[in-house]
């Protein structure tokens, strides 16, 4: 009887091994996607890798959210976990922090990306690192000072406020603008990234013989809310155009201000080089009254439809963007980069590897970038990068301005 039982157990083990062998064989012969997708599918199926992405709401930063959703659609809800911080994040700081930290409660969480990294992100990352130092913490488009958030995050990627501060003015000058109007509010102007960019823009205006103007608009996170802030822009633009003329270019630092600004500039005149966080979906659909549902996710078709509508409104040669959404690309691209790092395919702080991940979601875009340089110390941060995409001016036909090929004068990197 003992020999019979032993034989029976041996046969059971043999059948189990055969079953495992069949399963492995099937997985190796099945059609595979790209290398990163295949690796992600494997780790996700084993329940070992989860990636979290935190963004603002659709009303505050739609492109950021759509990029997170695109990455989730590519790899699945089981692997990719999404969260939204409060619209009024300045007044709900602890809620913002907890929203980010909560993702680290998942034992399989390996990376958390926050885009845009609003105030509270640095503290959230510090709390995460205290209990889960294994989690890769990545900040996209930080609202907090870069040296500060860089001390808590493993990687920080912002739009290149230094290079763009110069290049946006240069582009406006090339298009024949004689005035540049910068629209913002005190909270944004307290950020190092935005205050330095203003100083660079003003210096560039001086270089190109242009007038520089600062205008203040309500903060959408204040008591007036998004609706009140947008109503203010709608009311003021006609006055500004009359005051500064048809050859003035306009720039605003807040996403919620962008749509009403575009709408009124298309109606009354003026130039718009690109948004603070550029995209053909940033403000243009609402300003133009067009539906991009059928084109969703296809930025070549989106740009073509937006461009056609701009030209029909008489805006050819006066309105610009990036061909691919910055916010969309940052959310999806940084998550892709984190996955590539986890899979051993990329180095975390390598600009070429970051660009490679961004190009997964902006395949035809020209990107440029460099390490952030502290204006106070002149020291470059190894884990903080500033990136930008070429500027596209819509027209019949439209044209790239080759901004990524222009060498920004060294003096602009130390202006503050």
Keywords:
416 residues; alpha/beta; 7-stranded mixed sheet; 3-stranded parallel sheet; 15 helices
Q: Secondary-structure map with pairings?
A:
Layout: H1 2-29, H2 35-45, E1 50-55, H3 58-75, E2 80-84, H4 93-102, E3 109-117, H5 121-131, E4 136-142, H6 146-150, E5 155-159, H7 161-174, E6 179-184, H8 186-189, H9 192-208, E7 211-216, H10 225-244, E8 248-252, H11 255-268, H12 284-288, H13 299-312, E9 320-321, H14 326-342, H15 351-359, E10 367-373, E11 380-389, E12 392-393, E13 399-400
Parallel strand pairs: 1-2, 1-3, 3-4, 4-5, 5-11, 6-7, 6-8
Antiparallel strand pairs: 9-12, 10-11, 12-13
Helix pairs in contact: 3-14, 4-5, 7-9, 10-11, 14-15
Explained architecture:
The chain is an alpha/beta fold. Helix content is 47%, strand content 17%. It is built from 15 helices and 13 strands. The strands form three sheets. The chain has a seven-stranded mixed beta sheet, sandwiched between helices. Strands 7-6-8 form a three-stranded parallel beta sheet. The protein has a three-stranded antiparallel beta sheet with strand order 9-12-13, with no helix packed on it. Strand 4, helix 6 and strand 5 form a beta-alpha-beta unit. It is globular, with a radius of gyration of 24 Å. The N terminus is likely disordered.
Shape from CA axes? globular
> What percent of the residues sit in helical stretches (DSSP H or I)?
40-55%
Overall mean pLDDT stands at 88
Radius of gyration of CA atoms, rounded to a whole number: 24 Å
Count of individual helical segments = 15
**Strand adjacency order, main sheet:** 2-1-3-4-5-11-10
How much strand? 15-25%
Main sheet overview: 7 strands, mixed
Give the N-terminus to C-terminus distance in angstroms.
87 Å
The counted number of beta strands is 13
H/E element order: HHEHEHEHEHEHEHHEHEHHHEHHEEEE
Low-pLDDT sequence parts: 1-45
Q: Determine the structural class based on helices, strands and strand pairing.
A: alpha/beta
């Amino acid at each position: 009887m003992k020999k019979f039982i032993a034989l029976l157990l041996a046969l059971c083990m043999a059948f189990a091994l055969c079953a495992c062998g069949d399963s492995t064989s099937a997985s190796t012969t099945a059609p595979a996607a790209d290398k990163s997708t295949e690796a992600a599918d494997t780790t996700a199926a084993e329940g070992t890798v989860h990636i979290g992405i935190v963004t603002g709401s659709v009303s505050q930063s739609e492109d950021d959210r759509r990029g997170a959703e695109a990455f989730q659609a590519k790899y699945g809800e089981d692997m990719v976990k999404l969260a939204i911080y409060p619209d009024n994040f300045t007044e709900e700081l602890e809620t913002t922090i907890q929203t980010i930290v909560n993702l680290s409660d998942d034992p399989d969480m390996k990376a958390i990306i926050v885009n845009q990294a609003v105030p509270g992100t640095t503290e959230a990352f510090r709390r995460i690192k205290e209990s889960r130092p294994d989690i890769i913490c990545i900040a996209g488009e930080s609202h907090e000072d870069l040296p500060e958030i860089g001390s808590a995050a493993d990687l920080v990627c912002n739009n290149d406020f230094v290079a763009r501060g110069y290049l946006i003015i240069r582009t406006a000058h090339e298009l024949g603008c004689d005035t540049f109007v910068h629209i913002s509010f005190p909270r944004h102007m307290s950020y190092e990234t935005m205050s330095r960019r203003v100083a660079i823009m003003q210096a560039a205006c001086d270089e190109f013989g242009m007038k520089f103007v600062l205008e203040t608009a309500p903060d959408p996170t204040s008591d007036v809310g998004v609706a009140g802030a947008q109503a203010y822009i709608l009311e003021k633009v006609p006055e500004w155009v009359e005051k500064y003329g048809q050859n003035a270019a306009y720039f605003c630092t807040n996403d919620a201000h962008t749509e009403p600004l575009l709408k009124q500039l298309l109606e009354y005149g003026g130039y718009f080089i690109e948004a603070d966080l550029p995209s053909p979906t940033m403000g243009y659909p609402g300003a133009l009254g067009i539906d991009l549902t059928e084109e969703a996710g296809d930025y070549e078709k989106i740009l073509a439809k937006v461009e056609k509508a701009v030209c029909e409104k008489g805006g050819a040669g006066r309105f610009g963007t990036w061909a691919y959404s910055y916010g969309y690309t940052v959310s999806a691209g940084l998550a892709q980069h984190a996955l590539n790092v986890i899979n051993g395919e990329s180095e975390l702080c390598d600009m070429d590897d970051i660009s490679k991940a961004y190009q997964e979601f902006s395949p035809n875009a020209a990107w440029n970038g460099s390490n952030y340089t502290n204006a106070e110390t002149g020291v470059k941060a190894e884990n903080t990068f500033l990136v930008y995409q070429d500027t596209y001016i819509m027209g019949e036909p439209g044209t790239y301005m080759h901004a990524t090929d222009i060498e920004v004068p060294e003096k602009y990197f130390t202006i503050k």
